[in-house]
Specification:
The complex is a heterodimer of chains A (502) and B (247). Chain A is an alpha+beta fold and 502 residues long. In chain A, strands 1, 3, 4, 5 and 6 form a five-stranded mixed beta sheet that branches. In chain A, a hairpin with a 2-residue loop joins strand 14 and strand 15. In chain A, helix 6 packs antiparallel against helix 7, helix 6 runs antiparallel to helix 15 and helix 7 packs antiparallel against helix 8. The two termini of chain A are 36 Å apart. Chain B has a domain of 138 residues: 3-Layer(aba) Sandwich (Rossmann fold). Classes of the chains: A alpha+beta (502), B alpha/beta (247). At the A-B interface, helix 3, helix 4, helix 7, helix 8 and helix 16 of A face helix 1, helix 3, strand 6, helix 6 and helix 7 of B.
């Protein structure tokens, strides 16, 4: 297929003039062609440049592709015929007041005024509280009832609103309304001093500190043409896998708790803490905050620490394996996990699900294999896909990945790791440049885009958390599922509210 | 069944003996900062300028733990000549101004309100409201329920409804979109009630300070009784604060 989009690499610096600037019609046609042929949307966003409103898309097939165009204030929605653009078009409408005409579900994403003082696409008055002028999707009928949950939830969890339309116990539709965590992170990222950039990136979603931290660091490194040394790349890969381990193990424990099988719930709860403590061992913070910085890492991995890490992993591994065995061999657990909350491969493709949620629906995509960064170019990552799309598949993907992450870390710490630590510092970004970075964090594809202006200031910083794709997967899994299975399905996705809300 | 029992034996008894004994925390952990006052003005200024959170007061030669995210930049660039982070995780205060410190913190127990101890010393039920942070504070509050910390053994629980609770624990910088829900939750709690701010976000806005979408500190919205600094606070910091303030 010939396309007007050009091929780029993950973390490759481009002069902005190298990126094809198409007419809107040409942009639309090419983007739709690529995605209809099975391509996926990595980034699709608006930005203002010298007062002009522009759009840019980064798509992926087996390659990364990019192009841009001038924006129109109103345009025929891509989502009408091509679902993977759905969330992105809503986001652009909210951020810049650009209306995608004929969008199948034009709803705000996070509830804030647009950045251009344009008339609001959703007719909201933002003096009013969220959700403003929005009527939730309603199923009509005598025996239909609605259940509203949140924003404050019963546990120690982030806020969000869930609206179930049910007939009896059966959920006909779940609508998920987010935005309560909105902090305007993207705007802060391009307005603050350079010294705040790493801290902000790490706090987009604290459970994905390393994932977002890496995207930020790689973007700055690409633009400033700095290459972290081998040791730093190894330490960053170890940190990303530790993050995956802690979260996957925590999720498996939570899943176990939700089917009332308490031993693994407690054991995994404790084991998760042990893995968080290994991040603390590495950098002094249980979530890995403060480790990754542009240019490398702030903390080395001396031999004595490598030994502690190795000993701890050798001690933890059999415990993890035994509890996994306990969880997955229990027939009561299997009975609850299997066939619960099925998302078909076709739906998952259309929604653009990524990470374990996508792999559980038979989509093998993993950034570590497709667009590897850091030390992953030298690590073989298995496909990990499961075909069934149910809670069992989502749990089973985690099972496999937990064991793989343990293997990866143990192989990486087999030999001495030497790195020259970096300190926080300022850097000069080149003028009129572009970079996109992708990493496979534990929830899936995290991606950052940085565009600089003529003076080398950040013109646009675009962040995408995997949850931006996957929340609609959760909504889909609840179709025709008992409402009492919501907590189980919710845990099986365990998505980020703040990563979505930004 | 046999498998369940086998695992039970393997897991053993895991609950830490805190507060009787302090568990060891790995060396790189950054807890209570201490200040070397006799350092040159130049180094103080260098640290203050490098601090991503602008947490260092040059004139007073103090560090504001409410703004600080404990990244350790100031310690690294000056080799600890001005600020040094210790392994001490007992860093909570009952007053916001006490967070601006040279390393000496007032004993929390002495500053706690005696009627709180009488009311809640044997049973404290808390509602948590997450208001726009990064979910790390929430995660490290959640772990208090795991066997290692086992918060329930002290009679302290996180409950599902504000109606069942004696106070709220707030995390996050309180976004505009979350403010009403937070206030409604607060109002739903019967008097007398406690407000606890956990994490630098809830104390000052933390990493998001300056965003027009957030409040500039929980204390500008609600009367806060207990400040637990950190990004996020270590679970033991939370545990120390709750036990010392209420027990």
């Amino acid at each position: 297929m010939t396309t007007a989009f050009i091929e780029i690499s993950n973390g490759e610096k481009l002069a902005r003039e190298q990126i094809p600037h198409l007419s809107f019609d040409e942009f639309q046609k090419n983007a739709l062609d690529i995605v209809k042929e099975g391509g996926k949307v990595v980034q699709y966003f608006g930005y203002q440049d010298d007062g002009a409103m522009k759009l840019m898309a980064v798509l992926r097939t087996d390659k990364l592709l990019v192009a841009g165009c001038d924006a129109l204030d109103v345009y025929p929605s891509f989502s009408q015929t091509c679902e993977p653009f759905h969330m992105f078009e809503r986001e652009i409408a909210e951020q810049f007041g650009i209306r995608p005409e004929g969008h199948p579900w034009l709803k705000m994403v996070r509830y804030h005024p647009n950045y251009r003082n344009m008339p609001d696409v959703f007719g909201n008055d933002y003096e009013q509280d969220i959700p403003g002028n929005y009527k939730y999707y309603q199923v009509e009928g005598d025996e239909i009832h609605e259940v509203a949950v949140g924003p404050v939830h019963a546990g120690v969890i982030e806020p969000g609103h869930f609206r179930f339309n049910c007939i009896g116990e059966r959920v006909l539709n779940l609508e998920i309304h987010l935005g309560y965590q909105h902090r305007a992170v993207e705007n802060l990222l391009y307005n603050v001093q350079a010294k705040r950039l790493p801290i902000l990136a790490e706090n987009i979603a604290g459970d994905t500190t390393i994932g977002h931290g890496l995207c930020m660091a790689q973007a700055v490194e690409a633009l400033t043409q700095v290459k972290p040394d081998r040791g730093a790349r190894i330490i960053r890969s170890i940190a990303l896998e530790l993050e995956r381990l802690a979260n996957h193990i925590g999720d498996l424990g939570a899943l176990s708790g939700d089917v009332a099988f308490l031993p693994p719930a407690n054991y995994f709860g404790r084991l998760r803490g042990d893995f968080l403590n290994l991040s603390l061992l590495l950098c002094g913070n249980r979530f890995g905050k403060g480790l990754v910085r542009p240019g490398g890492v702030r903390f080395s991995l001396p031999d004595d620490m490598r030994k502690i890490l190795d000993e701890r992993l050798k001690e933890l591994r059999p415990e993890v394996e035994h509890v996994l065995e306990l969880l997955f061999s229990a027939s009561t657990v299997r009975a609850r996990f299997e066939d619960c909350g099925i998302v078909s491969t076709l739906d998952a493709e259309k929604l653009g699900l990524v990470g374990p949620a996508g792999r559980a629906c038979g989509i093998p995509y993993d950034v570590r294999r497709s667009f590897p960064t850091e030390h992953y170019t030298r690590i073989a990552i298995p496909e990990n896909k499961k075909p069934s799309g149910d809670v069992y598949a989502r749990a089973r993907v985690r099972y496999d990945e937990v064991l793989q992450s343990l293997d990866i870390i143990q192989s990486l710490i087999g030999l001495p790791v030497e790195t020259k630590c970096v300190n926080d510092g300022s850097y000069n970004l080149p003028a009129s440049s572009f970079v996109v970075t992708l990493n496979e964090a534990w929830r899936g594809e995290v991606s950052h885009v940085m565009l600089t202006d003529k003076e080398g200031k950040i013109l646009r910083y675009k962040v995408k958390d995997p949850s931006f794709h996957n929340w609609n997967g959760l909504a889909m899994s609840l179709r025709d599922t008992g409402i009492s299975d919501f907590p189980l399905n919710n845990k099986s996705f365990n998505l980020s509210y703040c990563g979505f809300d930004l | 069944m046999l498998n369940t029992l086998k695992n039970r034996f393997e897991q053993g008894y895991r609950t830490c003996s805190y507060p009787k004994e302090k568990p060891a925390v790995f060396e790189r952990y950054r807890g209570r900062p201490i200040i070397q006052k006799d350092v040159s003005q130049k180094i103080v200024e260098m640290c203050a300028n490098a601090c991503p959170q602008d947490a260092i007061d040059i004139g007073l030669k103090k560090i504001d733990m409410g703004r600080c995210v404990f990244c350790g930049t100031c310690e690294r660039i000056s080799n600890g000549a001005f600020v040094k982070f210790t392994g001490d995780f007992e860093i909570s205060t009952s007053k916001k101004e006490h967070l601006l410190t040279d390393g000496d913190l007032p004993a929390l127990a002495e500053h706690s309100k005696q009627h709180f101890k009488k009311l809640f010393g044997r049973s404290l039920q808390l509602r948590q409201v997450s208001a726009a942070g990064c979910n790390a504070c929430e995660a490290d509050l959640n772990v208090l329920a795991t066997p290692f910390f086992d918060l329930a053994r002290f009679g302290i629980n996180f409950v599902a409804s504000p109606r069942h609770s004696d106070g709220i624990v707030v995390t996050g910088p309180v976004s505009r979109n979350m403010k009403t829900a937070l206030l409604t939750t607060y109002e739903a709690i019967p008097d007398p009630k406690v407000v606890i701010a956990v994490g630098s976000c809830s104390i000052t806005g933390g990493p998001f300070v300056g965003s027009p979408e957030i409040a500039q500190g929980l204390d500008t919205i609600l009367p806060v009784d207990l400040f637990i600094p950190g990004c996020p606070p270590h679970p033991l910091t939370n545990l120390h604060a709750l036990l010392t303030f209420f027990k």
